[in-house]
């Protein structure tokens, strides 16, 4: 809400917009949920739609995403292996994530003597993203109707973003894409992709 209240200052002052308003907007997006973070990440790559200064500010959302707790990781991994404990399946499993994004986080582990990366979705991320997107569409309509914010052109960007958002939460789709990349680039030894193991 604060970025909306200060939008008139952002419209009048380039210095305020670049130094204060954009960072404030990014902080609000970062604390608003997975779909908002994902939209911010996507928008940071679209200087054709948004000012370059805003894209630079939004690019900070590509790192430092929140992590979920070890209990959720353990429960999801054990469910995927038919209830077998993490210790029974893996030679070693690091419950501290090595990285976290808006959809999932990555854990290092050793499986059958090989170092692997285990990707675990955040709790209820698909449901939360669907709800977030409904809120985002409403906010976009309000923003596009507000003269001081109309320049952001959020409505069209939300429509484009919405077409790809659903698939972002499907790790099985991501795994199939990796397999397809491996097949298509098998004649290019300089190109490599993660090798998918286990269920897809």
From TrEMBL:
Domain ABC1 atypical kinase-like: 61-196
SUPFAM superfamilies xref list: Protein kinase-like (PK-like) (SSF56112)
Highest taxon in the source lineage: Eukaryota
PANTHER family in the record: AARF DOMAIN CONTAINING KINASE 2 (PTHR45890:SF1), AARF DOMAIN CONTAINING KINASE 2 (PREDICTED) (PTHR45890)
Protein name (record): ABC1 family-domain-containing protein
Organism for this UniProt entry: Tribonema minus
């Amino acid at each position: 809400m604060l970025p909306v209240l200060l939008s008139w200052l952002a419209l009048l002052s380039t210095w305020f917009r670049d130094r204060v308003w954009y960072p404030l907007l990014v902080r609000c997006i970062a604390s608003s949920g997975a779909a908002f973070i994902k939209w911010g990440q996507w928008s940071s790559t679209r200087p054709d739609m948004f000012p370059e200064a805003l894209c630079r500010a939004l690019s900070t959302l590509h790192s430092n995403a929140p992590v979920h707790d070890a209990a959720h990781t353990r429960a999801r991994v054990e469910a995927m292996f038919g209830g077998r404990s993490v210790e029974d399946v893996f030679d070693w499993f690091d419950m501290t994530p090595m990285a976290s994004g808006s959809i999932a986080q990555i854990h290092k582990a050793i499986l059958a003597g090989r170092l692997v990366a285990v990707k675990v979705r955040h709790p209820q991320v698909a449901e939360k993203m669907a709800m977030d997107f409904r809120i985002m569409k409403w906010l976009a309509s309000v923003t596009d109707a507000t003269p001081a914010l109309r320049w952001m052109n959020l409505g069209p960007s939300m429509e484009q973003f919405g077409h790809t958002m659903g698939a972002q939460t499907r790790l099985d789709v991501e795994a199939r894409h990796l397999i397809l990349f491996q097949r298509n680039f098998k004649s290019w030894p300089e190109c490599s992709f993660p090798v998918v193991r286990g269920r897809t």
